[in-house]
Amino acid sequence: MRRRLSFQVKLFLSLVGFSCLLLTLLGSILYHVIDRQIHHDLGQRARVQASQIALMPGLAEKVAARDIFGIAAMIQPLRNQSDASYIVIGDVHENHLYHSASPERLHLPMIGGDNAEVLQGKTIISMRQGGIGVSLRSKAPVLDGNNKVIGIVSVGYLTSYIANINTRQLGQAALYGLLLLCLLFIFSWMFSRNVKKQMFWLEPKEIAMLVRQQKALLDALYEGVFAINAEQQIVLINHTARELLDIRHPENKLLGRPLAEVIRLPSAFFSENDFTSTRSHHDRIMVLNQRQVIVNCVPIALAPGDESGWVFSFRDKNEINTLSSQLSQVTRYADNLRIMRHEQLNWTATLAGLLQMKRYEEAMHYIQSQSADAQSVLDFVSAHITSPALCGLLLGKYVSAREKGIELKLDPACQLTHIPPAISETALMSVIGNLLDNAVDATLQTHQSSPVELYISDRNQELLIEVADQGCGVEDAMKPHIFEQGVTTKLSDNHELAGSDHGLGLYLVAGYVHQAGGSIEISDNQSQGTILSVFIPFSSDASGGEHYESQLAL
Amino acid sequence: MNHNSLFNVLIVEDEPELAALHRDFIEQNFQLRVVGIAGTIEQARTLLNLHQPHLVLLDNYLPDGQGVELIASPWLKSLDCSVIFITAASDMQTCSQAMRNGAFDYIIKPVSFHRLRSSLERFMHLVKTLRHVKVVDQSALDRLYNLPTINTPSSPSTKGIEPTTLGKVQRIFTDGADISWSVEQVVEKVGISKTTCRRYLEYCVEMGFISIEMQYGNIGHPRRLYRKKAAV
User: Fold this and answer.
1) For an interface test with A, which of B93, B198, B207 has the most A Cβ atoms less than 10 Å from its Cβ?
2) What SS3 state is found at B20?
3) Choosing among A325, A332, A371, which should be mutated to test the B contact, i.e. which has the most B CBs within 10 A?
4) How far apart are CA B129 and CA A247, in angstroms?
5) How far is CA A324 from the centre of its chain?
6) What residues of A are in contact with residue B193 (Cβ under 8 Å)?
């Protein structure tokens, strides 16, 4: 398998490669500009020299006279001062009269073939192959008194000389370039290293994988999860959370919005300073969007002690309840079986005895008494309550109370044929269910098996639900607060969730009754216990009970 | 015609002796014909399809499943067949499920023939009424399906109402006709429990003898007070 370059090396190499390319491009452009400039400058310099030499007093006469030694004597000092590669004087026939670089060319023809214009009296700059190599040169005519061309002055710079200058300058530039490159190397290395460090030394592919994993993980969770930043804005919310809390917007529309805008929170959610402290919280019961949930909270700290947000995960409380009740049912089931078998044996023995003694009437009576109780409750409930769901609920509560050794007494005058339009069947079930559960729990605390009484009546203008128990009762001081969330009279250690889910039932009841415009009265039962009476008006125009928490008739 | 008044019944019961007993009871006493006895859910399905009975006596615990699941199936509803659901006393939770799924009646084991008789009689009554009354209005239909309510001997309101106690309660209001009474005050005067008192007061309100008035007391908590209605 080919070894892959790490992100850091790749970033470094690409940075270096790209800057090298840039530098080369810049260098070559610079080289061309400088080259052209040098050519232009040298051409001009050659021209000036050529023109000035052509105008030197006495030169014309000497050229006309073909005084080779005179010319040489005249030009040689100039030649020594000039940086030109050569100075050549020629006659009108294009033969050398003087050549500073190679004197052996005297009287030989000038090479290059660019003299035609000069002979017409013009000064030119050209680049030609001359007698001693390629050169940049300027030629000027030597004129006599009649402005007639009698000779040619040629001043030239060999390309080798120009190249020499170029090389020198390029060498310098290269030195600077190298220095720049070194700096670039260092910068690139540090930059890529820094980037990598900020990415926790992870490769981009690994990060992409992590992000995808995180998304998949969050959506696969059966728990609802959401996270907020220090400004209490949502930074993350998973599918389950949206589903559990019945939030219809897609995730991307929720991100960045304040938490309180999206989720209806209990009023004390932030003000308690509970969640915004460094400690994390486990298994707290609260109501989010009217849903009982069990919340865990963990602060996100970029540095220890510096929270920049919180992660909340929560589960539906009902699910937990179902789970734990299923669990306890399984253990109870085995016990029940044992007891039932025992009872069954006794039952058969009794029956056999009665039959053997031919006491048939008694046997009949004995058999029928076994189912009579349950049958009568069943018949009573289905006869007096028309809602099948409520029938089911009452039956369920009756059975579960009986399992705890408490009788649920249904008042003989119970009647429910219609439900107030302001409350849904489900809400009504929650109200009745919670009231009954509370009454049963309160009775259990007294360790006596006094019955719980239920009276439901829809005869008059209001639906009346009255639940009476002879349990532990509610202290007068507690009564105004009993419908607040988290207030409970239950002992906290006799429950599997360590008391954390107490104080919600009546809070929910009050919420539903309030919504339906009804009211709740709480009063003491005779001898001991509590009577809770719920009134829900049938007419929908009834004003919402604003003070439902405190409508107490003591 | 004879076959017109005969209704088909299917018994679903895995205990053969009990099933036979039920069959004998049904066929001796009613114009019902038992078309089959099924010992399992599977058999019940086959026989239901075969005979399309009008009534099923359905036991809950069967070797291959629970009878309550059969009630829930939309397939059974499409057959237009009533169900009398039979379950053990220890299994009343299942009964609530059967209620929700619209069983015609629910009988607790051990089955009392007396109770079974009344259930079958109500069924016969229902079917006959439905046959004769081609067009039924909603209230008639409601009454038919709430037969247990109608079958209770006296009007439901008078349940739990004793004339002597009622007399005592009413006397308080006639004696103090211009006084508004709270529940607590009535309880104290008559000497009954609060829960019982509420029942009597509600009954009196229903009869139009007294009326409820709300008292918005000094703290702002409304209380329910009862007062004698002025004679018309």
Assistant:
1) B198
2) helix
3) A371
4) 50
5) 35
6) 526
Domain ranges across chain B: 7-145, 163-228
The domain made up of B7-145 is a member of CATH 3.40.50.720: no
Residues composing chain B: 232
Tokens of B51: 């005979």
What type of residue sits at position A201?
A: W
Q: Kindly compute the dihedral angle of the four CA atoms of residues B15, B17, B19, B25, in this order, to the nearest 10 degrees.
A: -150
User: Does residue A466 have a pLDDT over 90?
Assistant: yes
Which has the minimum average pLDDT: A433-447, A480-494, A507-521? Answer: A480-494
CA distance A417 to A419: 7
Q: What is the rounded CA–CA span in Å between residue A350 and residue A356?
A: 10
Contacts of A292 (CB under 8 A, 6+ apart): A285, A286, A316, A317, A318, A501, A504, A508
The letter for the amino acid at A495 is H
Task: Give the DSSP per-residue string, A299-361.
Answer: EEEEETTEEEEEEEEEEEHHHHHHHHHHHHHHHHHHHHHHHHHHHHHHHHHHHHHHHHTT-HH
Q: Which amino acid, one-letter code, is at A314?
A: F
Instruction: State whether A396 and B111 contact (CB < 8 Å).
Output: no
Mean pLDDT, rounded, for A44-48: 91
B217 touches B171 (CB < 8 A): no
Residue pair B155/B176 in contact by the 8 Å Cβ criterion = no
CA distance B60 to B44: 12
- Contact map slice: A 367-406 vs B, CB within 8 A: 367-368, 370-375, 377-379, 382-384, 386, 388-389, 391-393, 395-396, 398-399
d(CA B215, CA A47): 123
Residue with tokens 């005297």: A106
Q: Residue for token digits 């998973």?
A: A238
Which token pair is A437? 């559960």
**DSSP one-letter code for B15:** -
Q: Is the confidence metric ipTM above 0.90 for this complex?
A: no
Phi first, then psi, for residue B208 (nearest 5°) are 80, 20
Integer Cα distance of A508 and B133 in angstroms: 46
pLDDT band at residue A497 under the 50/70/90 scheme: very low
Q: What's chain A's length in residues?
A: 554
Going from the N-terminus, what domains does chain A have, and what CATH number goes with each?
7-166 (3.30.450.20), 207-318 (3.30.450.20), 370-491+498-537 (3.30.565.10)
Q: Which amino acid is at A41?
A: D
> What is the pLDDT at residue A278?
52
B79: which 2 tokens?
Answer: 């057959």
Q: pTM to 2 decimals?
A: 0.56
pLDDT reading at B232 higher than 60: no
Query: In terms of DSSP bridges, do strands A234-237 and B7-12 run parallel, antiparallel, or are they unpaired?
Result: unpaired
Instruction: Tell me the backbone φ, ψ of residue A10, rounded to 5 degrees.
Output: -65, -45
Nearest by Cα to A72 from A93, A43, A101, A115:
A101
CA distance to A414, B150, B206, per residue, from B161 (Å): 12, 18, 13
Out of 3.40.50.300, 1.10.10.10, 3.40.50.2300, 3.30.1780.10, the CATH code matching B163-228 is 1.10.10.10
Among residues 313-342 of chain A, which lie with CB inside 8 Å of chain B? 336, 340
- Enumerate the residues of chain B whose CB falls inside 8 A of the CB of residue A379: 148
Alpha carbons A40 and A168: distance in angstroms, whole number: 18
Instruction: Tell me how far CA of residue B174 lies from CA of A409, A534, B209, in angstroms.
Output: 32, 28, 10
Long-range own/partner contacts, residues B207-212 (CB < 8 A, 24 or more apart): B209/B170, B209/B173, B210/B173, B212/A460, B212/A461
CB A299 within 8 Å of CB A256 = no
- Listed range (A168-172, A281-285, A427-431) with the worst mean pLDDT: A281-285
